[in-house]
Amino acid sequence: MDILQRPLVVRVAQWSTYFALLVLMLGAYTRLSDAGLGCPDWPGCYGQLDVPESTEELKRAGEAFPDQPVEAEKAWKEMLHRYFAGTLGLLILSLAILSWRRRAVPGQRLLLPAGLLLLVCFQALLGMWTVTLLVQPAVVTAHLLGGMFTTALLWWYALRQGDLFHTAEALPPMWLMRRAAVGGLLLVVMQIALGGWTSTNYAALACIDFPGCYPGNRWPAMDFNAAFIIFSELGVNYEGGRLNADARTAIHMVHRLGAVLLLLYLGGLAWGLMRSDSPLLRGIGKLLLLVLWIQLGLGVSNVLFSLPLWVAVAHNGVAALLLLTLVTVNHLLNREIEEALP
Known about the structure:
About 65% of the residues lie in helices and about 0% in strands.
């Protein structure tokens, strides 16, 4: 079915997914540019809805926040992300309203758009806490995961409600592949969480070589006790990171080992899909393998080229694409189970 022939609610869900990907990339760009505290308050910036620029506005900002002078470039990055995130929230609100208005239509989903609306409200709270708790790693990582979940659930809604990738062919029973697909989805979520923890603790460059950590040192000293303390001290500014070098190295190496595990597991899943008799599953298997290798290449490039900004942002974006690919795989293999869900 052509996209223009699909119900409005499906088109809104699809375009909201694409917009959510953009918001994710903007969030990564803001974080990786060290602009997460570009505005010291929320939801405005130095007490107004845009960035202070005039002499009078700068004077008021200085009086309200004497210890945090205005850095316009960082502040605009932060506010641009907030503007786009707010627009995404309105799109999800419209999706929930459209779904409710279609509640009498057979097959219309109501629980998922309602859940999305609650999730985006919680995301707004996490965005506020990111600022008020001074980019505490646990909060920033949760904010990243919330963005990923929002994007994935939007895509899942579009898949289910719009019957995307519809095929007349009967997919063969593949109970082992179905379980493997669920396992792959969980592994991707765990690896994204590890990636967020690596980024928010400024551990991306704790190792500067590949495949070893340092030239001539394949297994460095690591402090696991300090590396994964989830609840950190309140009232401390975590911008720039506060962990010791060995703790950052431990985080980096765990994320790297997770990438190896993911490569082997998803590589096997992609190989199984490509051996299917279904052209649709063979195609999605090839896509999964392609996205997986691109993500691996971006991760290695981050290390070898000292974290170029565009590479680091792309690494976040392709992680989201990998998650959406796994959501699609699970949708195709588990349609019978999905039909029983509200």
